[in-house]
Specification:
Two copies of one chain form a homodimer.
Chain A: H1 2-9, H2 11-24, H3 30-41, H4 47-55, H5 63-88, E1 92-93, E2 96-97, H6 99-102, H7 105-123, H8 129-151, H9 160-185, H10 190-217, H11 220-223, H12 229-232, H13 238-244, H14 247-262, H15 270-278, H16 281-299, H17 307-321
Antiparallel strand pairs in A: 1-2
Chain lengths: 324, 324
């Protein structure tokens, strides 16, 4: 599989970032070290560092410099996950206990704060003020996105625009700036930064749409958590919005969502999942995701045809197709 | 009173910082705007911005530049307060409802994240990399301090050193870098930065010791919350550590603290307060606070005798004496 080939080829650099990640949460404070390493070991695809490393190849590739982007971006992502788990009362993530369930909400909040602050000390080693400005502005949007998500829980009157803006803030932006900052830190031309931002943004949108689809179509084994987690916490996603537009189903679907809301998510959501799965809504959402992937790949057309470009295209296709 | 004179003289610049603070939390997001403004309006002495403004007078004083330090430092302070209130289950602060009680813990967590991120976007306008490094390292220590505080709740075996390190991280460091960064941003000589850091550190230590004393000696009216809040949440402060060293009282005090711990703080702490107030422990703590004030003022001796220096001395004295 192409993705594995890419990771294999980048193995050395990814391993280096991984070691730096571990070192970065090193602290004399035993509990923080434990919570942070717990998070780190829980893994993930490190997709943000990979995007940084690939994007940096459009400039002067210097791993010792771009690690100051790759490492903090993954850490910021991790910090938001811990805080998310507090909000979601999540007990597991990727099949592992969350910090909030293994310790408690207070520890999880401060672990998030700590990892976040540590990330900033690493980025602060770079002197380019654009980096700090891009990074801090993205984090603001990220926090607004988090709070927006809460505000729109169970809101069946939200529009497609609300949804898209939310996933932009929640997911696409951090991936966009991973690509952009990889290019900035490697001193690529400014139009290259913008192209890579656009690539990352579109890939990020597709990524979150796919993620939202998987929560509706996956099995507990595939997801590491039961399907329907989104609706259980009130998160209305793209296929559900499409279904709500369908007059054939709107009435029963509204009633079903209201039933779940009243039960505060503590109920069987199989009827809900069936309604969504039986219509064309998943397929429609998939189409929009594919359109974002097409736009991402289109954005790259102006870049020189180096291996990193082909890798970015392959990753974009993989994200568009993913069904894991 | 000298302090009021100082604030009166700086009125224009403080008002400017205040307006910038309000503008900085401006967002189209109505709930975040509301929670942030709620926090902002709850007030406070804005002691960190005042220290920034005064310290900047040892270099080229340019309000439009140093606002990028004064505003974020106050915001970072505010962000830690919202997160603290979540940890402490605090319903009021300075007599006002906290964000977590007016909204909820989730909103408070994200409001803190948001204000914190916004603070960074403002500091990011300055190009001096030292500023970002100093700021981000201090924030790391701050988060470690927060988690340390939790870890030492009700720990009667902790030493004076534990306590001092904790209040350094929790309070003194942010005041120290307020003074330091005021000088850095106004391009004062590097030894001036260090002198002002030392001043701020010592003032900050005295400030927190005084604060901890007041929680034991103040009335509900003076404090805006009942006295003994610290012990109720398990926070062992300096006078209590002194009392624990007194063999005359150690036994009964340990039993009393254990009683409060078992009741999870939901009990009458009058017996505890009486024990502490009746001994020489408050006075001893006061002495240590005064020693920090002396050191703070000593640190300034090498600086030129400008008005800002006399103001810093006056504020230090005020903090040493404060009994509000």
């Amino acid at each position: 599989m192409k993705l594995l080939d890419i990771y294999a080829r980048m193995k050395k650099d990814i391993a280096y970032v991984e070691r730096e990640l571990e070192e970065s949460v090193h602290t004399d404070h035993s509990m923080l070290k434990e919570t942070s390493l717990h998070l780190l070991k829980a893994g993930g695809k490190r997709i943000r560092p990979v995007f940084v490393l690939l994007s940096a190849q459009f400039g002067r590739y210097d791993l010792h410099r771009i690690k100051h982007i790759a490492v903090p971006l993954e850490m910021i992502h991790m910090a938001t996950l811990v805080h998310d788990d507090v909000i979601d009362d999540a007990d597991t993530r990727r099949g592992q206990l969350t910090v909030r369930s293994k310790w408690d909400n207070r520890i999880a909040m401060y672990t998030g704060d700590y990892i976040f602050a540590k990330a900033l000390t690493i980025a602060a080693q770079l002197n380019d003020p654009r980096i700090h400005q891009i990074l801090s502005s993205a984090i603001v949007e990220l926090t607004v996105g988090e709070i927006e998500q809460i505000r729109y829980f169970y809101r069946t009157d939200q529009t497609l625009r609300h949804y898209l803006l939310r996933i932009k803030r929640k997911t696409a932006l951090l991936i966009a700036i991973s690509c952009q900052l990889g290019a900035v830190a490697s001193e690529a031309d400014e139009d290259v930064h913008n192209v890579l931002y656009r690539f990352g943004y579109n890939v990020g949108m597709a990524f979150q749409i796919r993620d939202d689809i998987l929560d509706l179509t996956g099995t507990e084994k595939e997801l590491g958590k039961p399907p329907g987690s989104d609706i259980r916490q009130g998160n209305i996603t793209l296929p559900v919005l499409y279904a709500l537009e369908d007059p054939q189903i709107r009435g029963v679907l509204l009633a079903e969502i209201e039933r779940i809301r009243i039960a505060d998510g503590q109920t069987d959501v199989t009827p809900f999942l069936k309604m969504i799965r039986n219509g064309p809504y998943i397929e429609e959402a998939d189409k929009l995701s594919s359109r974002y992937i097409d736009r991402a790949i289109d954005a790259l057309s102006v870049l020189p045809d180096i291996r990193a470009k082909r890798d970015l295209v392959d990753i974009a296709h993989f994200i568009g197709d993913r069904s894991y």
